[in-house]
Amino acid sequence: MENKNIYKEFAHIYSKGQYPEYSRKMSELLPSILRQFKVTPKKILDIACGEGSFALEMAIKGFQVTGIDRSADMLRIARKKTKKKKLKVKLIQQDMCSLKFSEEFNLVTCWFDSLNYLLENKDLENTFLGVSRALKEGGIFIFDMNTIYGLSVQWQENPSTVEQDIPRMLEIHQTKYNPKEHIATLKITVFIKKNEEWIRIDEVHKERGYTLNEIRQCLNKANLKEIACWGSLGSKTEPTPKTGRVWFVARKTEDR
Ligand SMILES: C[S@@+](CC[C@H](N)C(=O)[O-])C[C@H]1O[C@@H](n2cnc3c(N)ncnc32)[C@H](O)[C@@H]1O
User: Fold this and answer.
1) Which band of pLDDT confidence, cut at 50, 70 and 90, is reported for residue 256?
2) At 72, which CATH number?
3) Angle at Cα 201 formed by Cα 197 and Cα 204, nearest 5°?
């Protein structure tokens, strides 16, 4: 049941806040990675696409984009934005642990710690197997994840922070970490003024940290061959023990 009841009312706050900046940045950095690995994708699948910022940016660049997400509320915002911008993006409600595509895409992406929402190793494995099914031979998968260091140290540096404090809204984040399970809990509380009334919204998000080894084992099982692992997408440097977020690039290989 964990993580099933999230990105509901918070979806609207997410789309209006600074959060989508991250995936917009990814759409700017992506072309250099595609050049580096000599991939010229036409069809892109963005898993856990959220409110669609990345998918829309890629559609503007002329790619055929499909986005999937579990949250109906995030997808509703994505659809509204797609319509408003008169773009064509296929948006489907799907759980990334059971992707239902076969050999359609040259590129699959997953941004902004979405994979950390998978709390069981089996779920990560199933997601990678689904990505592999969705990819054409030679196609690539690019994703980022928060590291165990990021969740256990960086996230805990300020156990309570005010994320946004604007006249009609106050957003507070509180975090804790379970070192046995490598699971960080983020409690989001938002007070939002609607007409003259303040409304309170609470959501609890859980993110699991995986070792690089665990991630690599799941990639391996899905015939996804790692071709890069970076601690920064801008400088493409290797991760260090104090890296908070890692980016992986993996290529679909032939079945063994
Ligand atoms: C931090 S948001 C990132 C959204 C988007 N990728 C971005 O960069 O803005 C995490 C997203 O993962 C989605 N998500 C979490 N678990 C999921 C699952 N099992 N299947 C599909 N989507 C999931 C949430 O609904 C949410 O939209």
Assistant:
1) low
2) 3.40.50.150
3) 170
Q: Give the closest residue (by CA) to ligand 1 atom 4.
A: 50
Q: 210 CB under 6 A from ligand 1? A: no
Which region among 15-29, 40-54, 104-118, 198-212 has the lowest average model confidence (pLDDT)? 15-29
Of 18, 83, 91, 1, nearest to 50 (Cα)? 91
Domain contains 225: yes
Q: Beta 105-110 vs 135-146: how paired, if at all? A: parallel
Domain that holds residue 21: 9-146+210-252
pLDDT (average), residues 37-58: 96
Alpha-carbon gap, residue 99 to 126, rounded angstroms: 9
Going by C-alpha positions, the residue among 23, 222, 216 that lies closest to residue 113 is 23
**What is the separation of C-alpha 175 from the centre of its chain, rounded to a whole number of angstroms?**
19
227 by Cβ neighbours in 10 Å (0-12 / 13-18 / 19+) ranks as middle
pLDDT exceeds 90 at position 17:
no
Asked if residue 2 belongs to a domain, the reply is: no
pLDDT at 4: 81
The pTM assigned to this predicted structure is: 0.96
Q: Are residues 111 and 235 in the same domain?
A: yes
For the chain, give the mean pLDDT: 95
Question: Candidates 3, 79, 114: which one to mutate for ligand 1, based on the most atoms within 8 Å of Cβ?
Answer: 114
Taking each helix axis from N to C terminus, what angle separates 53-60 and 72-84, rounded to the nearest 10 degrees?
Answer: 30
